[in-house]
Amino acid sequence: MEKIISIKNLNYTYPEAKQEAIKNVSLDIYKNEWISIVGKNGSGKSTLTKLIDGLIEASSGTIEVDGQIINEENIWEARTKIGIIFQNPDHQFVGATVEDDVAFGLENQGMPKEQMVKEVDRALKLVKMSDFKRRDPQSLSGGQKQRVAIAGVLATKPQIVIMDESTSMLDPEGRQTVLNLIQDLRKKQDLTIISITHDISETELSQRIVVLNDGQIVQDDKPVNIYNMGTHLSKYGLEEPFSSELMSTLRDSIKLPEGYLNEEELMEQLWKLRLNM
Ligand SMILES: Nc1ncnc2c1ncn2[C@@H]1O[C@H](COP(=O)(O)OP(=O)(O)OP(=O)(O)O)[C@@H](O)[C@H]1O
């Protein structure tokens, strides 16, 4: 597996703060991987994201993005490889129409108009929002707004997409649509996804979960192994997903497949068992 981000012995202390917000963090992230970074409030998730995106500079340690250690000279180039989708879709809109909005990042790059129109159409198609291109972004649902925000990010062709609590303000349906879309894009567009969340249920589609606590990495494992920590997750301010909890209870009396099933998959499995009874 090829590394896209390699973090070594990273430390960060905010000016005038007494404690380090990030303490000796080392982490490799691989191309085309979906990694979730979880932890309670204040555990250091946002600080780590800002360090990766070069918005703040590490006190010590290094961050390599796509083979280059980030420094003052190459930070802008590194940043073109990273797109961020934030929590509140309303704070991300700048255009009067959906297409203007998606074009914003490209305008900043000084892309010629003709090419820009093509790229905007391509990005809107990827998030299945082409029919909405002339609409006012404010008239859309939360999930649709996030899909437009994702299109804005995809238009600039990043290799890495950071989702910073990007689905926490969405209703369950909007959230699921956005997460499934991200999974689909990861596979088809060869993206690396880093999702930052304090909600463990948002991590189901990821391949690896890193738990941050007090600025340090305390766990780094496959979701099923993290979920199996059960009540021990509470010391990191996290809860086991409902279906994982239900599966451990059900395993005492019925045979379930190995690994983790989300609520929908578990329900399907239970129906199958019932039909075969
Ligand atoms: N601008 C700042 N100045 C000083 N200390 C800060 C600043 N921003 C964050 N911190 C501190 O750094 C630590 C890590 O905070 P950070 O915001 O990275 O955590 P988080 O996991 O993203 O939390 P949340 O889920 O609340 O966003 C906390 O102790 C926090 O109080």
Automatic annotation (TrEMBL):
Record GO terms (molecular function): ATP binding; ATP hydrolysis activity; ATPase-coupled transmembrane transporter activity
Key words, A-Z: ATP-binding, Cell membrane, Membrane, Nucleotide-binding, Translocase, Transport
Tree of life domain: Bacteria
GO cellular component, as recorded: ATP-binding cassette (ABC) transporter complex
Domain ABC transporter as annotated: residue spans: 5-239
CDD domains: ABC_cobalt_CbiO_domain1 (cd03225)
Its membrane topology: Peripheral membrane protein
Localization in the cell: Cell membrane
NCBIfam families documented for this protein: ECF_ATPase_1 (TIGR04520), PRK13648.1 (NF010167)
Family of the protein in this entry: Belongs to the ABC transporter superfamily.
PANTHER family the record matches: ENERGY-COUPLING FACTOR TRANSPORTER ATP-BINDING PROTEIN ECFA1, HEAVY METAL TRANSPORTER
Protein's name according to its UniProt entry: Energy-coupling factor transporter ATPase
Organism: Companilactobacillus alimentarius DSM 20249
